[in-house]
Amino acid sequence: MASNWYAVRAKPGTQRMARPLPIAANITEQERAEAERRKGESILERQLRQEGIDVFMPSLWNWTRHHRTNKLIAKRYPFLVGYAFVHLPVLEFEKVRAVDAVMCVLSHTKESGPARFPESMISELMLIEFQAEQSRMLQEWSDIERARFNKQNYLRGQLKKILPKGRSVKTPMREYADQVAGRLSEVVRDRVLSITSQLDALDAAETLAEIDKVA
Q1: Under the phi-then-psi rule, with left for phi > 0, alpha for psi from -120 to 50, and beta for the rest, what region is 71?
Q2: Residue range of the domain that includes 167
Q3: Which of 46, 65, 115, 134 is the most exposed place for a label (fewest CB within 10 A)?
Q4: Is the pTM of this model over 0.85?
Q5: How far apart are CA 203 and CA 174, in angstroms?
Q6: Of 91, 124, 157, the domain-final residue
Q7: DSSP reduced 3-state for 20
């Protein structure tokens, strides 16, 4: 069975990220998953998908931290600048050419017709993109856990300095703080409660931004 993957040339500027799709309050789980999958899609991809055309634009994500706000900024870049692939089981080339963001369908020559690409090549590009995303996610998870551990370690050290002696080696510092809180002076207890609330916030944090907000 033929692959029916073809390359399209994108008009300048249409591989940049499109505006995020609006998410309705009554969105279904399937619609939410689709919106998540399309997060970061380019103008080219959005226009093709709006026409019911299956598109694959090999790309990678780059994450940087704003030098003033410390906020993480995500940007998506194409592997193949100027090109994307469309899957056309019905060979609707005119439908593809009618999309505003498409400059043309790639051909070897004017006489040869659209150039078809093997499924194996597309699969390899998809695998490269998947592995790059998995590597990024692993690095992000490592950064989150490292930041969480460092802050937790510091806060536990602060608790150790102000809590009374007598903690069992087997008793976690956070648990010990709850056990002795009633015996502390008001000033010390308030400080302990402040630290334990920060430890709880760190446990619940899921992103670096949330961890950064914990004092």
Answers
A1: beta
A2: 140-213
A3: 134
A4: no
A5: 12
A6: 124
A7: coil
Q: Give the chain's end-to-end CA distance (angstroms, integer).
A: 60
Q: Which residues of 177-213 are buried (b: 16+ CB within 10 A; e: fewer)?
A: beeeeeebeeeebeebeebbebbeebeebeebeebee
Residues 90, 17 within the same domain: yes
Residue that has been written with the tokens 């939410």 in this structure: 32
Give the Cα separation of 37 and 171 in Å (integer). 44
**Contact between residue 72 and residue 64 where contact means Cβ atoms under 8 Å apart:** yes
Give the model confidence (pLDDT) of 64-98 as tens digits.
Answer: 877 777 677 888 899 999 999 999 998 999 999 99
Whether residues 9 and 108 fall in one domain? yes
Q: Please tell me the total count of domains within the chain.
A: 2
Q: Which of 1-4's residues contact partners 24+ apart within 8 Å by CB, and which partners?
A: 2/116, 3/116, 3/117, 3/118, 3/119, 3/122, 4/87, 4/88, 4/89, 4/91, 4/116
Q: 106 and 57 in one domain?
A: yes
Confidence of residue 150 (pLDDT cuts 50, 70, 90): very high
pLDDT of residue 169: 84
Q: 23 is written with which tokens?
A: 């998410």
